[in-house]
From TrEMBL, chains A, B:
Localisation: Plastid, Chloroplast
Keyword Metal-binding: no
UniProt KW Disulfide bond keyword: yes
Stated family: Belongs to the LDH/MDH superfamily. MDH type 2 family.
One Pfam family of this chain: Ldh_1_N
Main location: plastid
Enzyme category, top tier: oxidoreductase
This protein's name: Malate dehydrogenase [NADP], chloroplastic
Ranges of residues in domain Lactate/malate dehydrogenase N-terminal: 97-244
EC numbers: 1.1.1.82
Domain Lactate/malate dehydrogenase C-terminal span(s) in chain numbering: 247-417
Length: 438, 438
């Protein structure tokens, strides 16, 4: 990574990693990645906190200036190491850089510890965590970093905290965009789309400018499909297919409800798809899902329940939970984000698939292009994925897919000003926010 | 476990597991375990929610009567399975039963998902979670159980929720006692000892009556050392050495502070001990701790820092964190509980040890008997442990150990009425609650 710090890496439309581009073509650097970078910013070179590890002599600890926007290594994570020089870490993979926005929030408070523990990227994958927060939450970010220190995770080799995405996203290979403004009292969905759209436009630009060119992005902050669309449209040098909107919690909930109804344990449910938007127009698919390898409709003969109650059960889960528990479902959301990552870095089991909201250009289903739509995916475990072609449709499923597609097209019109589409025109017919979400 | 449901198992002082006792000597059941069971209670046999797994026909889901004290299987966890009949689970270990009190609290909200994910007990160990809450928190318990459902953890095969420890602790092999009353405004430590002592006396009696005879108990609720003492004294048929007071978060923090000062990564610090009470009299030991295999005092030559600042840094960590983060350190506490369990179920690395608050009878250090005191331990990974004899003392260390020992003896006098020691006499000199804890 030392080279990347000294020079400005190139992103190509092919999405090569900055290090790959750079080590191959360091002689002819292109500055295309800077095209979205606001001119007012001046970024000094990133501070490297690595020290040669010499236990005999105490080393001065890097202190952080809280007024600075620059992310810096935190506490014990400034006292680092040469992973290749140490006997026990020689077999480890190359350090992976993971950015998390909304890092001081409750979902992150669950997720960060999962990422650091090795259960997401694996037991031989050292991790650097880059925490993005706001000015208001900066002290809380320090608190999170302190708790990560106190947890002594062997694989967690770097923690940086910051409030400027152009600094925090530097060289990241994963960006988990959880932070978003919650809907204020009386705020309409159109207004929320605009407020959060601004954030995701800025973060898209920052990713485009400084992240690894093949960065994988998972958008969690609502409205996540259209936020992901805004983000990818503002990052033209990163492959559009690298952007995901999280619908995995919906998929997990759908599997659980099918298991409950069928009287089986949830591990017997496979091939569950969430189609479309992460909103009340989403379509949990019981036509293609399977239980013990059999079509759901053969196992659950109460088709009235499937058509009239199942979707409602999945969608109202968050609302029921917030009533019972008094808090939103941070823990299971974090689990589903971890699941979404694992689905991309481990091969999908034979015959099965997973749902993710992805860019629709070139999709085989006839869904409108140019939106982010949840569909069934398979991965070889290389971070990439392909769309599953082997699915069936009936009139009932198609009708509902058309409705969620129409909503996403309407949302796109609302944010036209943020995606280079001219003047926005917002005609969202109703509030489709999922209960229990903000 | 079917046999245990039909009959009342025996606990022997040797601490055999109920199933072992039972399958070996089912002909001569003893009722000694019932000696602490209040007569007013009448316990119906436990409801078994297991159904033969037949995916073809939907099975009625067990519904729960919220007014009942009985813990029942929750939601999808009622739709269970024969672990031995399924191809993929045939190689799994026998289901382990884990009770968690304070299950609706924030520490549990982190811990339960770790236990369910397999990262604590291992990837081939199916887990049953038994959540103990209060009448007030019952709905929140349901919320937690719902989030566990939605997480689709393959190893999590049973979840039960309840508010009666005599029901929830049935057959448990691990009891993680996190729940405790927080200190109210103006409440003195003596009063807190009494209020929480009542809870832990009751839970000790319940464990004695219904848990597995070799149950391992980790007490987290404060004041945890004396709560653990109360608990074990009320469970005379469970081996006293099975009871632990959690000092692992203190140990983890001590390692982190030593690493920071020495300018090394925390994985280079070993042999860290917390001696004594989980309070401000606790003694983080820098005499026996090592950095890169060398004595700390050889690596950190600033001995003034070691003697005058190190302990303070460890103890004030929770207070600093609560100021930064606005919340107590639930996530890192949960990590340390997971660490404490893993230290008992995996062999301790050669030459290293871990800290735990354990019963002092027969200890090799000359510490007063009959209290729960944190000391260095090693385990073969069988759930049991032995005390480390190979430690050195100097006057400085001994003086501080004497002080924390005196405090624990004073705390014991405060709770004499709860441990069969006659009339309580409370003369605690000062408030020694750790900053940031309740």
């Amino acid at each position: 990574m030392a080279v990347a710090e000294l020079t400005t890496p190139t992103c190509t439309k092919q999405g090569l990693r900055s290090s790959e581009v750079f080590y191959l073509s360091a002689g002819t650097p292109s500055f295309r990645r800077l095209s979205f970078r606001p001119l007012r910013r001046t970024h000094s070179s990133r501070i490297s906190c690595s020290v040669n590890q010499t236990a005999q002599a105490p080393v001065a600890v890097q202190t952080k200036d809280p007024k600075s926007n620059k992310p810096e290594c935190f506490g014990v994570f400034c006292l680092t190491y040469d992973l290749k020089a140490e006997e026990e870490t020689k077999s480890w993979k190359k350090l992976i850089n993971v950015a998390v926005s909304g890092a001081a929030g409750m979902i992150s408070n669950h997720l960060l510890f999962k990422l650091a523990s090795g259960q997401v990227f694996g037991p031989d994958q050292p991790v650097a965590l880059k925490l993005l927060g706001s000015e208001r939450s900066f002290q809380a970010l320090e608190g999170v970093a302190m708790e990560l220190e106190d947890s002594l995770f062997p694989l967690l080799r770097e923690v940086q905290i910051g409030i400027d995405p152009y600094e925090v996203f530097q060289d990241v290979e994963w960006a988990l965009l959880i932070g978003a403004k919650p809907r204020g009292p009386g705020m309409e969905r159109a207004e929320l789309l605009d407020v959060n759209g601004q954030i995701f436009a800025e973060q898209g630009k920052a990713l485009n400018a400084v992240a690894s060119c093949n960065v994988k992005v998972i958008v969690v902050g609502n409205p996540c499909n259209t936020n992901a669309l805004i983000c990818l449209k503002n990052a033209p040098n990163i492959p559009a297919k690298n952007f995901h909107a999280l619908t995995r919690l919906d998929e997990n909930r759908a599997k659980c409800q099918l298991a409950l109804k069928a009287g089986v344990f949830y591990d017997k449910v496979s091939n569950a798809t969430i189609w479309g938007n992460h909103s009340t127009t989403q379509v949990p698919d019981f036509l293609n899902a399977r239980i013990n390898g059999l079509p759901v409709k053969e196992v659950i003969t109460d088709h009235k329940w499937l058509e009239e109650e199942f979707t409602d059960k999945v969608q109202k889960r968050g609302g029921v939970l917030i009533k019972k528990w008094g808090r939103s479902s941070a823990a299971s959301t974090a689990v589903s984000i971890a699941d979404a990552i694992k689905s991309l870095v481990t091969p999908t089991p034979e015959g099965d698939w997973f749902s993710s909201g992805v860019y629709t250009d070139g999709n085989p289903y006839g869904i409108a292009e140019g939106i982010v739509f949840s569909v069934p995916c398979r991965s070889k475990g290389d971070g990439d994925y392909e769309l599953v072609k082997d699915v069936i449709f009936d009139d009932y499923l198609l009708k509902r897919i058309t409705k969620t597609e129409a909503e996403l097209l309407a949302e796109r019109r609302c944010v036209a000003h943020l995606i280079g589409g001219g003047v926005a025109f917002c005609d969202l017919p109703e509030d489709t926010m999922l209960p229990g979400e903000m």
